[in-house]
Amino acid sequence: MGEQKKYLIGEFSERTGTSVRTLHYYDEIGLLTPEKHPVSGHRLYSDRDVLTLQKIVSLKVLGYPLEQIADMICKPTFDVSLNESLYLQKKAFEEKKEQIEAAITSINRVITILEEEGEVDSAVLMSLISSIQTEKDLKQWLEERAPKEVVDQLLNKSEEEKLGLDKAFVQLSKEVKRLVGKPFDDPEVQKLIMDYMKATMEFVGEEAIQAFQQMDVQESEQLVEHYPSPFTPEEEAWLNQAMEYCMTHHHFMPPEDGERK
To answer: 225 CB contacts (<8 Å, ≥6 apart)?
Structure first.
């Protein structure tokens, strides 16, 4: 049987599609150590090294760290005992998949908002993105504290409904920032507050509001943290005072069942 063909690192890199820098690193950490030319000291790779590199690449695709791969590539065979670590890798990839899908959803909704609005305050946009990305965490938190029908009413909405809520949120936030500081009895301020409270009622629903009112102070604070405010402390204080004024002078009450559309 003839002697195996040897490849210099540049040739091996071109043949395997692995960068020279990566091959240098694998050699340094003892993961893939080629022969060295006795005179020049150049790295000399063989066809056997190609097979070892294929194992490394395959295990990296499955998500294993290089430290663990170093042990695994020495094994001639694998049995069912590998399944435990594979299940862990699968779970990790599923979580990454959910994160990627959530990011894509955020991007699509933000693209639509920017195309329609043209310009959005950065604090409003960041608040919107944060609320989109934490929808799953919010759902899990609510499921532990509120009836299922309340959680479904609040969060199980179509993408079209969610986009409509995003647009309403942006519009209301823009109006708050435009009107902040004006007297509470100003007609524009009164209309803003009425629109704001009605939109909140339509989005949250009477049952959800009643469930939230039964939460203790700590739970209420945790709920607020899931909805990051796009407003400065001054804007937040003005908005709260304006809502109190509106409720006091207009006796704003949730619509009766017969008044809902």
So the answer is: none
DSSP conformational letter for 256: P
- Tokens describing residue 198: 């009605």
Residue reference for tokens 């340094």:
28
Helix ranges (DSSP H) in the chain? 9-16, 20-28, 47-61, 66-72, 83-117, 122-133, 135-143, 148-155, 159-179, 187-204, 206-213, 217-225, 233-250
Which pLDDT band holds residue 31 (cuts at 50, 70, 90)? very high
Is 180:234 a contact under the CB 8 Å cutoff? yes
User: Rounded to two decimals, what is the model's pTM?
Assistant: 0.55
Residues pairing with 45 in the sheet: 7
What 8-state DSSP symbol labels residue 95?
H
Backbone phi and psi for residue 174, each to the nearest 5 degrees, phi listed first: -65, -40
At 53-107, the pLDDT tens digits run 999 999 998 889 999 999 998 888 887 778 888 898 899 899 889 888 888 888 8
